[in-house]
Recover the amino acids of this structure.
């Protein structure tokens, strides 16, 4: 799954139960939690004080629309989680990672399985590359505190 729109952007796809607080992260068959493609090797998460203030950027809703097309999802299944835009220092330049949340009442296990992806808990994702682990940590903090 490659797309020019995602040269400098990625999405985390998450599910959070409103009642149970169950939190699941979508994982591609390749093992990556970033969509539509994994982060390049040697990528590292930047600290907020290191973020590059970009003048021109892609609106996150465009990313969600494109992911919906790539994964053949209904247009109302994902919504951008406001306030989450983390920057990753990658060999080809800065990549901004946004988070999109499933709007379903129940976890989308079957749906994502049909897209060759899985919904995983945080402990199931241990051992990912350090940049992805840091993204997961920051996403977890954002969702639990926000």
């Amino acid at each position: 799954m490659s797309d020019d729109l995602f040269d400098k952007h990625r999405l985390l796809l998450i599910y959070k139960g409103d009642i149970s607080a169950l939190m699941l992260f979508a994982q591609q068959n390749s093992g990556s939690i970033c969509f539509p493609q994994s982060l390049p090797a040697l990528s590292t998460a930047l600290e907020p004080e290191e973020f590059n203030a970009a003048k021109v950027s892609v609106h996150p809703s465009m990313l969600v629309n494109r992911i919906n097309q790539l994964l053949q999802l209904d247009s109302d299944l994902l919504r951008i989680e406001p306030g989450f835009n983390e920057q990753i220092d990658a060999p080809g330049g800065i990549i901004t990672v946004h988070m999109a949340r499933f709007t379903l009442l129940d976890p989308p296990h079957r749906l994502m399985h049909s897209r060759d992806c899985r919904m995983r808990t945080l402990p199931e994702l241990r051992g990912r590359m350090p940049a992805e682990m840091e993204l997961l940590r920051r996403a977890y903090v954002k969702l639990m505190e926000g």
Remarks:
- The first helix runs from residue 60 to 71.
- The mean pLDDT is 90.
- The radius of gyration is 14 Å.
